[in-house]
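Why does residue order matter? Because the sequence determines the fold. Keep that principle in mind as you read this record.
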Amino acid sequence: MHIVMMIGVGLVLFACFFLLRRFFAEPETNAGLPRYTRWFLWVWAIGAAANSAVGVVVAGFPVSTEAMVFVPVFGGPALVAILVAVLGRSRART
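Structure:
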């Protein structure tokens, strides 16, 4: 259940970054991911890593277990963020 909650937190965090994207304004370019997506990926990587560290240090889970948990916790919201950025760019061009 905790994994699902953390994925939900990541998606809500991405929604905040997406809604506040005007504050990450950048010149029009077709290269790479938008700035708000890059910022989200860094912030979420740190948050997911901190969650894993708490699992190891406080809860006493093995590092191998937390490494397996890190993949969906970080990867789910990251995949959504990248898909939104890529699909948003392709729609903007057409």
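The two ends are 41 Å apart (CA to CA).
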